Amino acid sequence: MEDYNNDLEEVISRAVEGGVSNIISIGIDIPSSRKALELAERYGFIYSTVGFHPHDADKVDTSKIDQLLKLASGSKKVVAWGEIGLDFYRNYAAVQNQVKIFELQLDKAHELGLPVIIHDRDAHNEIMRILKQRGNKDQKGVIHCFSGDYDLAMAFIDLGYYISIPGTVTYKNAVVTQDVAAKIPIERMLIETDAPFLSPLPHRGKRNEPLFVKHTAQKIADLRNMEFEELALQTTLNTKRIFGLP
Ligand SMILES: [Zn+2]
Fold it and tell me: End-to-end distance of the chain based on CA atoms, in angstroms?
């Protein structure tokens, strides 16, 4: 994203020096999916995704989705399809278009055998309904920036999905997310930055970056009474498993 135009190299070196082993750079439309792949082609430890965010659903059609399909099938560095999903909070795109574009992209991901990264904002029931209805037991995926409660997390886990916890878990009032992070099975949990958004404490309100994932990991380790290293190891293994990283 443009937020890193001036200091991308420094942001990446800070992450590496701070112990971040891999980065997955996310696509939300055609230009960002291309840029993410360029980055992934430049750095061995960086991977990328392709996807259309629900915000753009009014502007997407099958030919644009096919461009992403081409991008995704042309490189081993594309490890997932997403962000895709539904956003009934901002509602930048019509609901029926969001649903249509979400389902079309679920089809493409399944066709390519790629896991999906799902954005779910105030759309828990609809996303659950769609995923259940499709019943693709072999479709792996992650609910990114998970914002639901423990019961919802377990329902997604039962469907075969992983739950990704963002930096917001460090905020004092984030009791529901803290409850999820403390209780879900560790084998199904991922940790993410969602950079440049959702900076964890002590960087709340400022630009987020990959290195800051350590603050999120530390908070979750504390919530679970685990060592930081153990949590980091387990969530790294989970990430490698779902995205097929070496
Ligand atoms: Zn999102």
Answer: 26
